[in-house]
Structure formats: structure tokens, C-alpha cells
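Weekly modeling sync, notes
Attendees: S.R. (lead), two postdocs, one rotation student

Agenda item 3: backlog of single-chain predictions. S.R. asked that every request posted to the team notebook include the full sequence so nobody has to chase files. The rotation student volunteered to paste the first one in as an example of the format we agreed on. Action items at the bottom.

Example entry:
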Amino acid sequence: MHLDKFSPKDRKKYRRLEYIPGLMIWVTFIGSIVLSFIKPLYVIYFIILFTLYWVLRLFYFVFYSIYSSYTFHKQIKVDWKTKRESVPNWQDYYHLFILPTYSEPYGVLETSLNGILNCGYPTEKIIIAISWEERRKDVYDEVEPKIREKFGDKFFKVLTTLHPDGLVGEIKGKAANANWVGWKCKELIDQLAIPYEKVIVSYFDCDTFVHPKYMDYLTYVYATHPNPTRSSFQPAVLYNNNIWDAPAPMRITAYSTVFWLLAELMRPDRLYTFSSHAMSFKALVDVGFWEKDIVTDDSRIFLQCFIHYNGDYEVTPMYIPVSMDTVIPEKSIWDGFASLYKQQRRWGWSAEHMPYMLYHFSKKKDLIPFKTRIKYIWNLGEGMYSLATAPILLFILGRLPLYVAGPEVKATVIAQNAPFILQFIMRIGMVGILVSAILSIRLLPPRPQQQPKYKWLIMFLQWILLPVNLVIFGAIPWCEAQTRLMLGKYLGFFVTPKKR
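Predicted structure, as returned to the notebook:
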């Protein structure tokens, strides 16, 4: 975020708030190491309780993931077209798909647009907006004419634009591109004289492939919502477009994210928008579209609306899947690992929401209830802190006090039994991993013919890598992101390569 948009006083205040996420994790790590030498017994108790807490949380996570998966498999069977047509004046609504893109090839966009067409929704009610980056004008010159030729007459309107490079107040990234095309969409909708409240925006990554019932479902949920301009609509995100071709660490990371979102769908009070989602164009206009100097635009837009409407804004879960690409190596496996790490580091940069919330909540103490402010600060803070610290504490630092404790401590009952207690708790936790493995198989798309049948077994056994994956492609990049924020080494937007 560009701090120069604040007054000098507020700039210092905001900068101090940026220290909080990094300080929390480093106080935890340094404190754990120091106390392991001076008060090892305290740390042993802490590690046992912390491990138990995380196993209980794992079962909570698995329970809601299973329930959410069951719900969305059930919802997919509903005849949403009939339900949509039962809504009076459903024809008044238009769908606007905003697809910011960078260097993605024609095939990625073609697949996404074909998916929208395959919904069977009246195309005279669909507007497509695709925005390329000027710094990759070569891609625009190659892909835009193909899009125009194939899809130009298949939708009500197809808006294509080129986001200029180097505009004042922007950082290079998806948010700035989205802000640019958002204003271009406003010009178009104003020309068409469509009420903003009647435009449903699906803000998608350009590789998003929608379920055939997505538009019927979204139209029904939006049209029957008591106040649809005060809600975002979050589908179930599945990173499975190319899941069969991805290496095991990429698959595990992708499905860990899928399970997290499935669990969150069952708790709308905790839900933020994530990746591809939908919302009212009216809300976007009210908040001035996406902030153009941030990295994590998909979840920030929810907070923009939440703060603008003084807490009167929510996320409505949609139990319908949208599919996207997982990371696949472009050149070598190490190249793929680097891309996966950078993607996770970018997601870890969601820590930038903490100072944003604290700063703006302090300005609206009398407008947003205290309990509401505390709830959202806790949900964000606990999540980003846990993802950065828990895997390292459980799998790396957890044994340290047992190794460095003196003879007197090692002679205590708790120290002698701690390894067995931890081992027992971890074995219970393995049940949760087993359930996750089974659930991941159920969520897989059909096996491509070129993939051998034994790949099913590999897809199941890969979950043994989860502890290592959580450290290397979870805790470490999240720690780096929060440490960068603390030090003022701001992160730019990393475009995850798309390959199929």
C-alpha cells in the first residue's frame, strides 16, 4: 500500500500497525527457543496443549469440510434453472464477468469463456470484460483479436481494454488492472442505462471455469437475497482444472486451500471473499472499485465494502464449484516449486489486511459495533498467525525443550511422558489426514485417459507429505510475507503461471 496517501501523522500510525503480524510470529519463535533453555517445563506443557488444540482444530476443520462437500454435492443436483425462472423479473438482471489477465495464453481464456457459454444462460444478459496489461501488449495483440473473432457476437457485449502501465498511485498487479477495467465497465453500463443494482459482477481469475449451473444458482441467490447490494457471493473454489498433471506438493497445497474454503463456507460469519467471487456492481461503484495499490485484492474488496457500509456487509456462501488451475512446472520441477512458494507468499501477504482493519476500525468506533470489530480482527489475526507458526512449532520446535532440558526436568513425569503423549495426539491427528485424503479423491475430476489407473493410489498416498508441505509451502512463505510487512519490504504481485 502506498503510505504517501496518508497524512504524516496517519502514515506513522499505519506503519506501526504493519509491525503487528511480524512481531507476533517472531516473539513466538524467539520466545519458544529462549524459554526452551531457561524454562523448558513451561514450553513442554505449552507444546502438549498447543498440539492438542491443533488436533481438535483439525477435526473441526475436517467436519465442516465434509459437511460442506456434502452440501455442495447436494446443491449441484438442484434444478436451479427452474428456481431462477420462478423469480419475478429475473430477466432484469445482467451478469458482468470481469477477467483481468496478464500473460495467459488464448487457450486459458477460451476455456473460461466457453464455460460461461455452457451455462446455457441467455447470452443477451451477459457482458464480458477482459483487461490486459500494457507492459505485455504483445499478448494483447496476439490474444485479443482471437477473442473478438470467436466470442464478439456470442455475448451481449464484449469489452476488451489495455491497462496503461505506470499510472500514479498503482502497484503492478491484478488490483490495479481490475480498478482500471471497473471504471471502463461503469462507462459502458452508464451508456446502456442499466441500474447498478441489476448488474451482478463475477470477479474471476482468468482461468476460472464455472459449473454449468453457476449462473442460474447465482441469479436465484442474488435475486432472492433480502439486500443483495450488501453481500458478496462466494462459490466453492476448486483448484482442479489441471490437478491430474500437477506434482504431489502442488496438489496437496491446492486441496489444503480447497478444504479450508469448504470449511469456511459453513461459517458465513467468518467468511471473506477469496479468489473468484460475485457481488453487486452497485457496491463496487460505492467503494470506488478495487484499491489499486494492494496485492490481495480478492479479500480486500470485502473489507472495503464492510467498512464503507459500517459493518452492514456480509458474504453469502454458494455451494456450487468454480474450478481453477493449480501450479504446474513450466520448465522444471524446481521452477514449479518456486512458483508455488511465491503464490503462497502472495496469499500470506493477506496480513496487509490487519493494519487496514485496525486503522479503519479505529475511525469507525461509533459506527461498527465493538463485538463485530473484535470478531473480524480475531478471525484474521488467528488465521494468519496460526498458518505461519503452527507447522513450525509442531514439527520443528516442539522437540527442542525435551532435548535441551536439564536432568532435573527430564526426571519429571511430564517430561518423561511428553514424547508418548505427543506421539499419541499426532496419531489421532492422522485420522484427520486420512479423512482429508478420502475427501480429496471424491473431489477429483474424471481421470484423463492419458493418466494411468494407478494414479488414483498416488493421489491418496500423497497425503503423507502433508506435514512437510505445511512447513515448506505454508509456514515459511507466510512467515516471509509477514516479516516483509513488518520491515517495510513491500511485496509486489506475483502472477502465477498458467499451464495445461
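Discussion: group reviewed the output briefly. The chain has one domain: 1-500.
Action items: rotation student to repeat for the remaining queue; S.R. to check formatting next week.
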